[in-house]
Amino acid sequence: METLSCRYKNTCTVTLETRRRCSACRLNKCLRYGMKRERLIKAEKKSIERRQCREERTNISAINEQNSQLQLLTSPDSYSPQTSSQIQRAILNSDDLQRIEMVQTAFEKRIELARDNLLWNPTVHSTNLLEFLNSRSVPAMRLVAFFKQIPEFTQLNSEDKFILTKYNLMPLLVPSFALSFKKDTRQVIETNTDIPWDESAFQQAIGTNYLLQIKPIFAPFVEIVQYDQKIMQLFLIVLFLSKGLSTGEDITEPILRDYMAVYRAHNFYTKLLWNYMEVTHGIKVAYRIFSKLIFQYLRWLNLRRTIALDVQQSLPRTEQSNIFPVMQSLFHI
User: Which CATH entry fits the domain spanning 94-331: 1.10.565.10, 3.40.1010.20, 1.10.1740.10, 2.60.120.810?
Assistant: First the structure.
């Protein structure tokens, strides 16, 4: 009995339900009923040892699992396939290749298709914040023209198309500008007849502080486009078809009417983007590019929310009413 003690001065009630709560009191009760002391102590010790072994195995298993997860997150090579039998290799069939070419052509045709719907003359400079916001309708309408050529989007419910456009379009402008960025002049120019956009234009509209924060986010997008512009074109579609991009903003996003149709379209282009990157550039490069795209886009979303709030607060109510109605909707004003 030296190895067993009761925390409650041997006053525990031992029943069928409570017998495992206090080994000392259970042993005393067994002795009172005539059981042999040595045999009971030996059996109790074995029971305690078995319970301790189970707890140790559980703890060791938990520690090993945590270490494995930590290694997976921190090791740069953790995503590399070990053997060809461990993963399903990505493939691109003829339909996939045709769809990728269709996406590239659709992006090029967006300029011409949007020409008659532009609300702002792209050959005119913007001179103040109000004009800057209205001039953003040009790349916005061109992006809409791009997405309208995507079959999976055009087949969606009309209300769902409106929701995706209203809540997902404007955040895509900055990554889409990477596709029109001229590195030699450091300007964004979608077509030769447009007034080019450079750092001074953004600085005048949003200030030096925000410009300095945007530049390290925008630079990786440019690098990826210069490496392979098809990746960014497909990525724009994936983002556009993603429900909930405005989460975190002070707005309520409606529920989709046909969530599964949007999910299938989103899943199709996500898989197409991944397979294209893996087949074309290899799985290691694919992981690296995809991780960079997601990371930089999330950084941009956080910064954009701050900029949008600041812009709305700095623009007088009287001038907000002069923003194009379609842009008021896209800006959630």
Answer: 1.10.565.10
